[in-house]
Specification:
With about 550 residues, the protein is mainly α. It has helices at about 5-20, 30-55, 90-110, 120-135, 140-150, 150-160, 165-195, 200-205, 215-230, 240-245, 250-275, 275-305, 315-335, 340-370, 375-380, 385-390, 390-405, 410-425, 430-460, 470-490, 520-535, 540-555; strands spanning about 65-75, 80-85.
Length: about 550
């Protein structure tokens, strides 16, 4: 167990280097692209297996204790150490990262996004995985900053080189926002480390801010919080997110929403709350206010995109929904209570599962219809997924009701616990203010249900025959499927380089039957569906891990 976590973090980096090398003759398969995509599936699968082994070997009777630790001196002059470890807060995020990256690699093996060589794509995917895993595993402030920054470059190139329309502008906006926020965060981390006498996060959390003056804590929380809020993203620092999601390839959107956004909220729980508690207490009402504004703003933006005639993009709508959902996470953190913080951590994991599934599904809709524009999809008769591709339609409806927080699914518990925390916030916080925040968050849940049900109605319902255009649309779809099969055979039988099987007709929406959920899609999406149901029906499995660790982080030194 001692070096298992280190192996999980390092293996993707080794795999990224290996992916750039020529494949051995016996492993080339039908072509070099298939070989490197298979390599990506193999490496991410190995990382997932090691992560599951870490979770199985984790001592669940001591989830508040750092386990699988590695502690090696790196820069003695600054007392910077290669310190790794996981507890009940970080373990679920490590496993979630490994799972989503493996599913993205598996999906890409069959449907590689259009762009440069597969070698670069796989290498960037693995570097991104390593940086994200390191962010959740490191226990040194400077290492956390390096891991936090490590994910920016691969995500920038995934958007800029394999993205869709406006990808260059979206990629630049993504990296400029996050880099500027990170510069401010670095100043705060240096202030904490120099004033506290160490950069070790465990030692600083145990000290519970006693070596940091009140003014120092205020400055540190403000500086660190800005960098974390950009990555979360918190309103009004969210404006890079919709553009990045809209332009990113499907797997880029899945990883951006599923794991990268969690790095910001994880930083609040791991660094801000235990290391600078007085500063966190001072800024908590402001954080809660920004959180609920984000909840309402995200929901209203989604309603505006969902209405007929708004030319709303489905990917952009789900991106704005993330602003609202992450608002619940920030609200739970701002309550400074075990109930609220546990709800925030639960909502983090639930959002990763549900929104990852939704972006996979939207990618499938775009592949079949050639567009994610809601007006194009609904048209005169509706996209009618229930009639044309019933399994795909059912999965999209499932993702929508999970996202709106239906009881019995994962999205319910995090939002409910965050509002419970706001009902009775930590001592010293204004209860009337937090009751107002709770009421506004409750209004946000109603608005969320409204726009998601509108999306389901417009995309899943309608006339599956499509009137006079049906025959022509069906013939076009069949001809395109035949061409796609021929292209796949010519490139070695892998769908990774084949064109979309059903491009849109002249009207923008094919009529008649569509390809329903394919085998590789079923394999990539089923784990997310199963875990969404499992977390909803058995929340104690996750809360049993996080609660003792949260109690320790909030109660250290008392």
């Amino acid at each position: 167990m001692q070096f298992l976590l280190a192996a999980i973090v390092v293996l993707p980096l080794v795999g990224a280097v290996g992916g750039l090398l020529p494949a051995p003759p016996g492993l080339r398969g039908r072509g070099p692209e298939q070989a490197v995509l298979r390599h990506g599936v193999t490496v991410t699968g190995a990382v997932l297996a090691l992560s599951v082994a870490l979770a199985v070997g984790f001592d669940h009777d001591r989830p508040a204790t750092m386990q699988a630790t590695t502690d090696i001196s790196w820069i003695p002059a600054l007392d910077v150490r290669l310190h790794l470890g996981v507890d009940g807060v970080s373990l679920p995020l490590v496993v979630l990262t490994a799972l989503l990256t493996f599913l993205c690699a598996l999906y890409s093996y069959f449907r590689m996004p259009q762009g440069p060589s597969a070698k670069g794509f796989v290498a960037l995917l693995l570097v991104l995985e390593s940086g994200t895993l390191a962010s959740f595993a490191v226990l040194d402030l400077l290492l956390f900053f390096l891991a936090f920054e490590m994910v920016l470059i691969p995500m920038y190139f995934l958007i800029a080189r394999w993205g869709g329309e406006q990808r260059q502008a979206a990629a630049w906006k993504f990296i400029l926002y996050t880099l500027l926020g990170s510069v401010v965060m670095l100043l705060g981390l240096l202030l904490v480390g120099l004033k506290g006498g160490t950069f070790d996060m465990v030692a600083l959390a145990t000290d519970n801010g006693s070596s940091l003056g009140h003014t120092t804590q205020l400055i540190a929380v403000l500086a660190i919080g800005v960098g974390l809020a950009v990555k979360t993203p918190m309103w009004p620092l969210h404006t890079w997110l919709p553009d990045a999601h809209t332009a990113a390839p499907t797997v880029g959107s899945v990883l951006l929403a599923g794991v990268l956004l969690k790095m910001g909220t994880y930083g609040f729980v791991r660094i801000v709350l235990p290391i600078a508690p007085d500063g966190a207490h001072t800024f908590a009402p402001y954080l809660a206010a920004f959180a609920v504004v984000g909840i309402i703003y995200g929901s209203l933006a989604c309603l505006a995109l969902a209405r007929t005639g708004a030319k709303g993009d489905l990917k952009r709508l789900i991106a704005y929904s993330s602003v609202g959902h992450m608002g619940f996470v920030l609200l739970g953190i701002a309550t400074l209570t075990p109930t609220g913080v546990n709800g925030a951590l639960f909502a983090n994991v639930a959002h990763g599962l549900i929104t990852g599934l939704l972006f996979f599904l939207v990618g499938a809709v775009k592949e079949r219809y050639g567009s994610t524009d809601l007006d194009t999809l609904s048209g005169a008769t509706g996209a009618a997924l229930y009639g044309r591709a019933p399994r795909l339609g059912a999965l999209l409806a499932f993702g929508a009701v999970a996202s709106l927080g239906l009881p019995g699914l994962a999205g319910f518990w995090g939002e409910m616990l965050a509002m419970f925390g706001a009902f009775r916030p930590a001592e010293g916080l204004s209860r009337p203010a937090f009751l107002t925040f709770m009421a506004l968050a409750g209004l946000g849940t109603l608005l969320t249900a409204a726009y998601l049900l509108v999306v389901v109605r417009r995309v899943c319902m309608g006339d599956p025959d499509g009137g006079p255009a049906a025959a022509a649309g069906t013939a076009t779809a069949k001809g395109a499927a035949t061409a796609a099969a021929g292209a796949a055979a010519a490139t070695g039988g892998s769908a990774a380089t084949a064109p979309d099987a059903t491009p849109p007709t002249a009207a923008g929406s094919p009529r008649g039957p569509l390809p329903d959920v394919r085998g590789y899609e079923f394999a990539a999406w089923t784990p997310l569906v199963a875990l969404t149901v499992l977390a909803g029906l058995w929340p104690a499995a996750l809360l049993g891990l996080t609660d003792p660790a949260v109690q320790t982080l909030l109660g250290a030194g008392r």
